[in-house]
Automatic annotation (TrEMBL):
Record-linked Pfam families: Glyco_hydro_1
Top-rank lineage group of the source organism: Eukaryota
InterPro entries, per the entry: GH (IPR017853), GH_1_N_CS (IPR033132), Glyco_hydro_1 (IPR001360)
Quaternary structure note: Homodimer.
GO terms for MF: beta-glucosidase activity
Annotated family: Belongs to the glycosyl hydrolase 1 family.
One record GO biological process: carbohydrate metabolic process
Transmembrane segments: none
Keyword Hydrolase appears in the UniProt entry: yes
Species per Swiss-Prot/TrEMBL record: Agrilus planipennis
Protein name from the UniProt record: Myrosinase 1-like
Length: 492
């Protein structure tokens, strides 16, 4: 069967010279795809579901999204999940990463009387996956804060830790028997810094250098509390694993003198979250503490705008993950931008400027260019910085405008998967799983339905939301079927 698939792959994709790597993915390597509730479920107000900040925000501020769309219906995955599981099966994936919509479980976020219909929905999805031998990887929080909890300050309110933990408890309790991998939070940098510090994501507070750090502080405490709850009570019962998903852009020094600045940017971007959890000393990265404290003093604050963990909290957060979930898409160049601007902001705290090399091929998202060597360098950096953790690549993918013959996406996946193989075999990075973002085109936040990441095309003008396999779906299927990068044409 493998040979047949391979020959078919050769016929379909071999008009170029790439792929056919000398390396095979390890036999137990896990391939999957990833998605998130607000982006694909739709059914925003059915069966007792309450509004999240994304429901409210897109309804009140459609101008925030390029095509004025929202996730009310999205891919209608809420109703079409059985069909979607068949697609996953057809692709041959070993696991499926999806997120739970908090307000399906607790419609107001307040932790009382869980909504039976919401629990039934995820039970049905988990059962369907199990029936088809697909391992569930479940993200507890992928940005959709219950609106009433946001009205209380959301993650800037320390009480949120209790609310989040009760939600996580209900999830562990009801779904833990089938879930092998749990992810406490998806991309805290994007959620806290770009959604609280800036206005790229809901709740769009735009209070850079203040709201982002408060959000991050309580998010890290919530993460650790969920880890310990699982570790103490549910791991002994169910034996799953629990981690967190961090997004990393690779920051390459724009010239060799800029390595210090590039490293500072890596620490502010990913180290903010990884250092407290994955290093032996724990706590925020020293460079972050130093720069924010210094700038805060210059601004006339009597304390640093970056909150401090107590010694017990440092211990409690340290080591609170079985694996590092890593979302990676792209690379930026970085250079020092030390300045005297005392405006309060994240950028004036880190004092690094980042920019793209114009020669890099670009995707449809403004921030995405094709730089596979950045992926490899980043994986090696994670190994070296965090004592060789288990890494689950929880997202990687390419955006275009939705064409079915998506040669650029095939080329992107081919190159990034080759880089991943080199990281595994030549740099000894412990990557155990990889998820393509995403199974099907879905609501891409402020890019609406314009930039598309799917292996499957979705026709959003049709009420039935038909899914159609793109060339990249076939390519990924051959990769999974052969455990290696099958030939493809490099076009970007
Ligand atoms: C990361 C996020 O987790 C996901 O929600 C988003 O759609 C992809 N990046 C692509 O931007």
């Amino acid at each position: 069967m493998k040979v047949l698939l391979y020959i078919f792959g050769l016929l379909v994709f071999s008009f170029g010279t790439h792929g056919d790597s000398i390396y095979q993915f390890p036999d137990d390597f896990l391939f999957g795809t990833a998605a998130a509730a607000y982006q694909n479920e739709g059914a925003w107000n059915v069966s007792g579901k309450g509004p999240s900040i994304w429901d409210t925000f897109t309804h009140l501020h459609s101008e925030f999204v390029v095509d004025h769309s929202n996730g009310d219906v999205a891919c209608d995955a809420y109703h079409k999940f059985k069909e979607d599981v068949q697609i996953l099966k057809e692709l041959g994936v070993k696991f499926y990463r999806f997120s739970i919509a908090w307000t399906r479980i607790f419609p107001t976020g307040l932790p009382h009387n869980p909504n039976a219909d919401g629990i039934a929905f995820y039970n049905a999805l988990l059962d369907e996956l199990q029936k088809n031998s697909i391992i569930p990887m479940v993200t507890i929080f992928h940005w959709d804060v219950p609106q009433p909890l946001q009205n209380l300050g959301g993650f800037m309110n320390p009480k949120m830790i209790d609310y989040y933990i009760e939600y996580a408890r209900v999830a562990f309790e009801n779904f833990g028997d089938r879930v092998r991998y749990w992810i406490t939070f998806n991309e805290p940098k994007q959620f806290c810094q770009e959604g609280h510090g800036e206005a790229y994501y809901a709740p769009a507070l735009n209070m850079s250098g203040v709201a982002d750090y408060l959000c991050g502080h309580n998010l890290l405490r919530s993460h650790a509390a969920a880890y310990h709850l699982y570790n103490d009570i549910y791991r002994p019962l169910f034996g799953g694993e629990i981690g967190i998903t961090l997004n990393g852009l690779w920051f390459e020094p724009s010239n060799p003198q800029e390595e210090e600045a590039a490293e500072r940017m890596r620490q502010f971007y990913l180290g903010w979250w990884a250092h407290p959890i994955f290093t032996a000393e724990g706590d925020y990265p020293p460079v972050m503490k130093e720069y924010i404290a210094k700038r805060s003093a210059q601004q006339g604050f009597r304390w640093s705008r970056l909150p401090e963990f107590t010694a017990e909290e440092v211990e409690y957060i340290k080591g609170s993950a079985d694996f590092l979930g890593f979302n990676h898409y792209s690379t930026f160049l970085a250079a020092n931008a030390e300045n005297d601007d005392l405006t309060i902001s994240f950028a004036n705290d880190h004092q690094v400027k980042t920019f793209l090399d114009p020669s890099w091929p670009k995707g449809a998202s403004s921030w995405l260019s094709v730089v596979p060597w950045g992926f490899r360098k980043f994986l090696k950096w994670l190994r070296d910085s965090y004592d060789n953790p288990y890494i689950v690549v929880t997202e990687n993918g390419y955006s275009d405008l939705g064409q079915i013959h998506d040669a650029e996406r095939v080329s992107y996946y081919g190159q990034y998967l080759e880089a991943l193989l080199q990281a595994i075999y030549e740099d000894n990075v412990s990557v155990i799983a990889y998820a393509a973002w995403t199974l099907m085109d879905n609501f891409e936040w402020f890019d609406g339905y314009k930039s598309r990441f799917g292996l499957y095309y979705v026709d959003f003008s049709s009420p039935n939301r038909p899914r159609i396999a793109k060339d990249s779906a076939r390519f990924y299927k051959y990769v999974i079927g052969n455990n290696t990068v099958v030939p493809y044409k490099k076009v970007n």
